[in-house]
Specification:
By secondary structure, the protein is α+β, with helices and mostly antiparallel strands. The chain has 25 helices and 7 strands. About 65% of the residues lie in helices and about 5% in strands.
């Protein structure tokens, strides 16, 4: 039985048990005198339980109902504390209703809430969800001078800026000032920097003035860097856009008499210099952490042949540092470039490896052994005239012998769980290892290699791992697996959004992904997914069954025609 599906079936019963225990905890607080410390600990425990539960509307609303009823029973003893917590329960229920699309329910819930800044913000968000942004602006204007807390003030100001931007009721400079004010009130809030950067980018892309566009590009880049400094919530939007902006301005830095006049050429060079400096400082000071850069590794390494020398130098230092920090994974990610048939790409990848080895000389053997293994796997993939199977011992003795050498490096087995980047919920100081099980290495290969009966004749290898298990991989020739690799990256992002969605999460919706490791432009490795059948195999089976049926019908018709 699949543990995930079993848990989903049992979850409603587990939720009921949790609600019963919440009632029991509330009864114990009442029996023990209902002091303020006991009540605070009780509320904290209920909130922790709720954060660990699934984010579906029905489950969360049930937990909030129980919490609100229990707090109502304590109102006589602790009136001020309980009234504030009850109001917070109503606001959370309104938020969950709005996010689930139950706007009428959200409106009815807000009728139970008093006149406060928090309630005003929730009402404005409700009107924005109904596309009534002018009404939302009116409510937010009333509470724009609230001083209850910096976080609440920043949220109100940010929503007001969003409504201004959506309605286009004010000029762009006013919207910019509004977003800037958010970052001043709450400098460590990722969302404020991200919205400011997105608006800068929007204005920049629509500006006909190239000089103005370059100035906004610098501001956009700095705000995206600040957003990444504060957290990972918007990393899949902020980091790719930041890199694209940087690379594009680098391409525009042409000789001054080719496409533009001297003044614009000088402005472009200055903008590029400022962005290059910003990138150097951000990477050197871990403002953009190394594990964050891994989420856009394929985008960065795809630009190793960037025409602008200053951009290439920053790319080289960035990739070299990632190789030093995460050598096992980054070597597999870089293999397609190191084995490229384009000499320029190959030489630049070698320059990255050399810089990393200069920083950490112990990497030299690992890089050499990894490239040797990748080259042998390409030879296995490209082997022809093999029949249905062949022996590694006969045709590729070196592939077996290299693992018998005592000084051969421990090379990571590139499984999905070892190569996928797992981000923390919040930006963590210091070093962070973003990969899962990375202690499984290749120790050898089984002798028999199966040849799959298809046009490209891919080979199925059984790899012996350091944990005593066997893992199957397919090495495929005459196919650019870089596209497949990008598709898997896209699917992993889709899975992240599905996991964040309450309805999708409750139905366990996800895409089954697997590791794809390009070895060059025409060859690569694919992790074999167990207990699956190829779509082509299913179609061939159906066609064969249909053909058998047609032959029987044809025979019967022939017999009946002769009678």
């Amino acid at each position: 039985m699949n543990p995930a599906s079993a848990y989903l079936r049992a979850y409603p019963h587990l939720l009921c048990l949790q609600l019963l225990q919440n009632v029991q905890l509330g009864g114990e607080v009442m029996q023990n005198g209902a002091t303020l410390n006991l009540a605070q600990d009780f509320v904290k425990q209920l909130d922790t339980r709720m954060t660990l539960s699934q984010p579906d509307f029905n489950g969360r609303s049930s937990q909030l109902d129980v919490k609100r009823i229990l707090l109502t029973k304590l109102t006589a003893t602790l009136p001020e504390f309980c009234e504030n917590e009850i109001e917070q329960c109503w606001l959370e229920m309104a938020k969950f209703s709005r996010e689930a699309g139950y706007l009428s329910t959200c409106f009815n819930i807000l009728l139970n809430v008093g006149d406060s800044a928090k309630a005003g913000l929730e009402q404005a968000l409700l009107f924005s969800a109904k596309n009534e942004h002018h009404r939302a602006l009116g409510i937010l204007k009333r509470w724009s001078s609230v001083n209850d807390s910096a976080a609440l003030s920043a949220k109100i100001m940010l929503q007001r800026g969003v409504c201004m931007e959506t309605t286009a009721a004010v000029e762009s400079n006013t919207v910019m000032r509004q977003y800037k004010e958010v970052t001043k009130v709450l400098p460590e809030w990722e969302e404020g920097h991200f919205y400011l950067a997105s608006y800068y980018d929007k204005v920049r892309s629509s500006s006909p003035d190239l000089q103005r566009s370059l100035e906004l590009a610098i501001q956009t880049h700095r705000c995206y860097v600040n957003a990444l400094r504060c957290g990972n919530r918007y990393i899949y939007q902020a980091l790719p856009r930041l890199l694209t902006l940087w690379f594009d301005i680098g391409h525009k830095n042409k000789p001054r008499d080719e496409y533009m006049n001297d003044r614009l050429s000088q402005s472009t060079s200055q903008a590029l210099s400022a962005i290059n400096d910003s990138m150097r400082v951000a990477i050197a000071n871990d403002t953009i952490a190394p594990y964050q850069l891994l989420t856009a590794f394929s985008q960065i390494i795809s630009r190793v042949c960037h025409s602008e020398q200053s951009v290439w130098q920053v790319i080289q230092k960035t990739l070299a540092r990632l190789l030093v920090e995460y050598p096992d994974q980054v070597l597999w990610m870089s293999m397609a470039v190191s084995k490229s048939k384009d000499p320029n790409r190959k030489n630049r990848c070698k320059a990255i490896f050399d810089m990393a080895i200069k920083s950490n000389p112990s990497l030299a053997v690992l890089v050499e052994d990894s490239q040797l293994l990748a080259g042998l796997l390409c030879q296995v993939a490209n082997k022809t005239d093999t029949g249905s199977s062949f022996s590694i011992e006969i045709y590729f003795k070196q592939l077996k012998s290299i693992f018998k050498k005592p000084n051969f490096s421990s090379i990571l087995l590139p499984r999905q769980c070892s190569m996928r980047v797992i981000l923390p919920d919040k930006k963590l100081p210091g070093k962070f290892f973003p990969f899962g099980d990375s202690n499984v290495h290749i120790v050898g290969f089984e002798d028999k290699v199966e040849v799959i009966n298809s046009l490209a004749k891919p080979k199925k290898l059984s790899i012996l791992a350091s944990n005593g298990q066997k893992y199957s991989f397919m090495v495929k020739p005459r196919d650019d697996l870089r596209k497949d690799c990008k598709l898997m990256e896209f699917n992993n992002i889709v899975n992240k959004f599905l996991a964040d969605d309450a309805e999708a999460s409750s139905r366990n919706l996800h895409i089954r992904t697997y590791a794809v490791v390009p070895l060059n432009e025409e060859c690569g490795m694919i992790e074999w997914v167990p207990n699956t059948t190829a779509f082509r195999t299913l179609l061939i089976r159906i066609y064969n069954e249909m053909n058998k049926g047609l032959k029987v019908i044809s025979t019967l018709l022939t017999i009946f025609a002769c009678i």
